[in-house]
Specification:
Layout (H helix, E strand, L loop, with lengths): L3 H21 L3 E5 L14 E5 H4 L2 H12 L11 H10 L4 E2 L3 E6 L2 E6 L2 E4 L12 E2 L2
Antiparallel strand pairs: 1-2, 3-4, 3-7, 4-5, 5-6
């Protein structure tokens, strides 16, 4: 049987562990589409969960506004995959299938959903240039 002091030690260790995890997790916030566009053409999702720095990223906000207003006048179909990857390099975000904003983080292509960035599965559709819009 363990003594009360041993249990106290375990509780302190667990609370320190929880504190250390919390320190390394980035703070997330909801960026509501209505904060960017008054009357969006596409209202779903109504918000995106993003890190504080991503929520303030003007290039990402521009892509969200284009996607939700369905205004792709500044976008066009890429001629080569270099067009897509040059957007990643410049900090802008291409749009996939007029549905998803795509980013490139840590050598991974990720698409934005309501709950945040998700890894993009490698399907045959990714390799069709007509599915992409670049700025």
């Amino acid at each position: 049987m363990r003594s009360k002091s041993q249990f106290g030690t375990y509780i302190v260790m667990l609370s320190n562990f929880s504190y250390n995890i919390a320190m390394y997790q980035k703070k997330k916030e909801k960026l509501f589409v209505y904060e960017l566009i008054e009357d969006p053409a596409v209202s779903f999702p109504s918000y995106y969960v993003l890190s504080t720095s991503m929520a303030k990223n003007e290039m990402l906000q521009e892509a969200i506004m284009a996607l939700h207003s369905f205004d792709f006048s500044h976008y066009g179909t890429p001629k080569t995959f270099d067009d897509i990857f040059s957007m990643f390099g410049s900090g802008t975000f291409p749009i996939y299938k007029e549905k998803y904003i795509v980013g490139y983080f840590g050598n991974k292509m990720m698409y934005l959903e309501s709950n945040g960035w998700k890894g993009m599965p490698a399907t045959a559709d990714i390799f069709k240039l007509e599915n992409w819009l670049v700025y």
